[in-house]
Amino acid sequence: MGENSKELTDLQKEQIDVWLAEYEACQSNRDHFDSTYWIIATVFLAASFTIIGLSFQESIIDNGLAVSFLTLFSVFLFTILYLYNWSIQRYIDRSYERMREIEKAISDLGLDMKLHTSINSDFPKGRGRKIFLAITTGFFSFCALRIAILLFAHI
Question: Which of 23, 74, 137, 153 is positioned for an S-S bond with 52, CB 3.0–4.6 A?
Fold first, then answer.
């Protein structure tokens, strides 16, 4: 605490303990959803890119049905991953939001706590989503190009 801060009451100390327990639960919740997402993303992205790569195999490259199926199945896997991310992102965002609220409440008592608040101000929200959007756009463009090549090769 700073020189100008006052002593905390027993009730304030208890409230801080409750906030810190909630803060830890929020962090654990965020860690769980984030790590689960990346495990699933690793599997789904690897499968999706492998499947689209299979459509270039010489043994099936001229089989329009097989190429179409592989491309669409690859898109399906990518879409499932996107929908999973969309469904859990609100829990991650709410955990961050609550941690920042707790940091503010504790800071208002004269204690210095601002990890997630400083991260939020240093790294504006949406930067990761822009990267994800770029990857998604590239992936779907590649899949559309793959189908277009298939269609034009048989004209």
Answer: 74
